[in-house]
Design brief:
About 15% of the residues lie in helices and about 40% in strands. With about 140 residues, the protein is of the alpha+beta class. It has one domain. The longest helix is centred in the N-terminal third of the chain and has 17 residues.
C-alpha cells in the first residue's frame, strides 16, 4: 500500500498513461490521435530478473469517431514488455508495445467497449503482424 492507495491501482494508471504516450511514438501518424480511457483485467508477469510483461484490455478512442453517431469508445487488447538493464534500474532499457487487433482488411477491430474484456485478452493476436500497433521503444 502507498499513501495514495493500492499499488495495483497506481500500476493500472501508469499503464494507461504509458499506452497513451506510446501511440504518439507510432510511425503511423493515424495512431497519434488515439488515447486510452481505462485499463481492465491487467495481468502482470515477471519474465526474467529485469523483464516484465503486462497484458490486459483497454478502453480506447480516437478523434475520428468523435464525429460519428456511435460511441467513440472501443475495447482492445494490449501487451507491454518492459526491459531493464538490472533489477535496480528505474528507467526502461527498451519497451515493446502491442495494441489492438487487425481485421483481414488491415484496419483495427473496433470491439464495443462493453464486451467481455477477458475474452478480448484471451483471443489477442499472437504474431506482431496481427496487432494494430507493434513497436519497440528504446531508451524510454
Amino acid at each position: 500500500m502507498s499513501e495514495r492507495g493500492p499499488i495495483d491501482g497506481q500500476i493500472v494508471s501508469l499503464l494507461e498513461s504509458f499506452l497513451c504516450d506510446a501511440f504518439c511514438h507510432s510511425p503511423d501518424g493515424q495512431h497519434w490521435n488515439w488515447w486510452t480511457d481505462g485499463v481492465l483485467c491487467v495481468q502482470l508477469e515477471q519474465l526474467g530478473v529485469a523483464t516484465f510483461l503486462a497484458v490486459g484490455a483497454t478502453i480506447w478512442a480516437d478523434d475520428l469517431t468523435l464525429t460519428d453517431d456511435q460511441s467513440p469508445f472501443f475495447l482492445a487488447p494490449f501487451e507491454l514488455e518492459f526491459y531493464f538493464s538490472s533489477p535496480q534500474d528505474v528507467d526502461f532499457e527498451r519497451t515493446i508495445v502491442r495494441f489492438g487487433q487487425l481485421q483481414s482488411n488491415g484496419r483495427i477491430i473496433r470491439q464495443p467497449w462493453g464486451d467481455n474484456a477477458m475474452k478480448v485478452i484471451e483471443t489477442r493476436p499472437q504474431a506482431d503482424s496481427d496487432w494494430a500497433i507493434a513497436i519497440e521503444l528504446t531508451g524510454y
